Amino acid sequence: MMLWVLRGVGGALGMLAFLFGIRSRVTLENLARAVPEKSTANRWRIAARSYSNIGTVFFEFLFLRFAPKPVIQKGLEISNLDAFLPSINGPNGAILLSGHLGNWEWLALGCALLVGRPLDVIIKNQRASRAEQFLVAMRTRFGNRMIDAGNVRAIFRALRSGELLAILGDQAASAEDVRVPFFGVEVPTLEGTARLALATRSPILFLQPYARTRRGYRARFIEVPFSDLLDATPANVRELTARHTAILEQTIREKPELWLWQHRRWKHVNP
What we know:
- The chain starts with a helix and ends in a 17-residue tail after the last helix.
- It has helices spanning 3-19, 24-34, 40-66, 69-75, 81-88, 104-115, 130-140, 152-160, 192-200, 234-254; strands spanning 76-78, 94-98, 119-123, 145-148, 164-168, 179-182, 185-188, 204-212, 217-224.
- The strands form 2 sheets. The chain has a 7-stranded mixed β-sheet with strand order 1-9-8-2-5-3-4, sandwiched between helices. It has a two-stranded antiparallel ribbon with strand order 6-7.
- The radius of gyration is 18 Å and the shape is globular.
- It is built from 10 helices and 9 strands.
- A hairpin with a 2-residue loop joins β6 and β7.
- It has a domain at 72-258.
- It is an alpha/beta fold.
């Protein structure tokens, strides 16, 4: 099926989900917490566009599962890829970080094809369901590999072998995780990315999608600097986590409709 048809159907169903109130309360509460300076009407518009976006993304998964490799590769444009190839191909591997922005699955598939190397995609909460089987088949069809988030040994081994890790850094963390600023609030945030980078000296490259195009997405790399942080001390882990979270926040502020506002990112924050 044509990409534009899938997007149209997905966007319309996403809007219906919003109108029927599916997780709309969570979405609007998240927006009220994150951007209280915006009017209620503006937050409702962002919410509606976010639902249209997530519906579009889910239907794009069908496209990613069956579309030819050249089409998916050409569908992702990374504007500054050449400048970051030395970091990507360095001896310590690289941590390719992003969030639930735009179509994060397209970023992983397309990036691997563009750099000519498979990614080791960190996943968690994998379930033995048909939906999960579909996702695994989609994610691995061009050589990308899955590593469970709990398999710390395999993750370190991948980086020390010079491989590329793909991580989504915006998932809700436990109340015990390090807290860093996110939209003006100290929020528990997954600290694994910072710990990995400080232990292996692998660069962190944030892959930032900034536009949906007729063929796919446009994105760019932003390096998260940490040459001044030498050891994986609690203070350095917090600082580096805060740095990459700030890039995530700025990305969301620039294109709020591309983020997944429907998940409980602030669930361990006091009202």
